[in-house]
Give the backbone structure.
Amino acid sequence: MEEYRELAELYCTSCNYCLPCPENIPIARILSLFSLARVYDLEEAAKKLYAEIGRTGFFARMNNGAACTSCGECAEKCPQKLEIPEELAAAHAALADDDEGG
Ligand code: SF4
Ligand code: SF4
């Protein structure tokens, strides 16, 4: 039980307390896609949805993880104490198209 609790603390709860991001990055969305790819082994689906950020659909007017400047404003506000800039960089590396240049 304690193990589960510790594990749960590592995850983004999509509370959105980290917003607004000056670079208009949908942080919770990206972290949830990263979890989808890692935890549930749905990498291809997560990559397709990640590719929509900044291009089409609900997140068309926002930016993906490559736009993060590591300013750290978000991480200061995160109750889960996630290292958001590092998480976004890892998410982008895992989920971005190879030809996207990020
Ligand atoms: S560290 Fe990155 S994601 Fe966080 S507020 Fe700054 S630009 Fe946005
Ligand atoms: S504040 Fe932390 S837990 Fe909440 S949405 Fe942002 S990254 Fe996720």
